[in-house]
Known about the structure:
This protein has helices at about 1-20, 50-55, 70-90, 100-130, 135-150, 155-180, 185-200, 205-230, 235-240, 245-260. It is mostly helical.
Amino acid sequence: MLWLFFVVGLLVGSFLNVCILRIPEGTFWYSARSRCPACQALIPAWLNIPVLSFLFLRGRSRCCRTRISWQYPVVELLTGLLFAFIYSRFPFWDFLTFHFSVPNLLRFLHGSILFSVLLICVVIDMRHHIIPDVLSLPMILLSVPVFLLHPELTWKSSLLGILVGGGIIYLIAWSYFLIRKEEGIGFGDAKLLAAIGGWLGYQSVLPTLLIASVVGSVLGVGLVLLQTLRTKRIAFQSSLRMEIPFGPFLVLGAFLYFFFDIPYI
Ligand SMILES: [Zn+2]
């Protein structure tokens, strides 16, 4: 069953790649067939097999030998591992006894939908430094069916999650703007943490923000040191303006919270 959900995850991952490519372009609802981004040639279905096609083509497109981004197999593999992991946490169908667990199915759908959308947000944030409202806002609204259907979530923890998650980052962003007169942390991050709070409950907000800040700072300081070593000049002043997308760290924090299932902080 784990292998089955790994393969399902690979297929979903290849759909997530389409979302990552098309949502920032605003071409999501255009032609269904995928085309080579370099020469616009149609990609035949047998070259759209997750991971395997990339390996078979050795990372270059067949039409014009353009290098294919590592993003494609990495997103597919991550989604495959994600689905297998979430199924292992919430196995909803016993192959031998045919026992079917509806609560576990709901928990599985909840986790896999949430982290699929968050994975799209991560890659788009890394590539374009934005978190599209077309992803974060519907996720906030979908918190309502989520707390209605999910076995553990309540409307209180979900609603409080949206308010605390969005509010904390909004406050940080606003005070940074007042002090430095420029946007430091994006308001896109506020909507992202509001969505995470709505889907995982208010208990998830502080651990998520804490992990994101610690990992983000360590990586930020590391980048400053690396730049200093490379240019043999203290990069401190310029690096104060270094732009590091925060969304990926928030998603990492949310995933670790979900993974270790910290009940209350
Ligand atoms: Zn091509």
